[in-house]
Amino acid sequence: MKLTSLFTNLSKENLQERLNPSVTALIDTITEFLDLDLVYDRYTFLLTCQIPPENKHCSIFDYGVERSIIDNKMEIKIFENQFELFPFILLREIYNLFIPREVRDYEWIQLTI
Predict the structure, then answer these.
(1) For the segment 75-96, what is each residue's pLDDT rounded down to a tens digit?
(2) Of 35, 50, 51, 79, which has the fewest Cβ atoms less than 10 A away?
(3) 7-43 b/e with 16+ CB inside 10 Å = b?
């Protein structure tokens, strides 16, 4: 399966139904390609229609998402209003599942991702 096919004909209307299959396909492909295991093997990807606060400091490494980690489970909420950047945001967040929490916020790690 070509990964580009995951994003073909993607629209705001079908984004929710295609989110979990896309996440699974990307994680499986990247895991196999990199020969790495996920650091966060418990995760949830959600779409949210809430709009991030304008006054919240947001770096490019956090743009379009709200993350939380509870009991070693990563919850990633992707803002629906960032649809144009969805492929970039989704891929960035999946790569972050491979990065240990202790070094995840290092800028050079995020630049590499």
Answers:
(1) 999 998 888 889 899 999 999 9
(2) 35
(3) eeeeeeeeeeeebeebbeebbeebeeeeeeeeebeeb
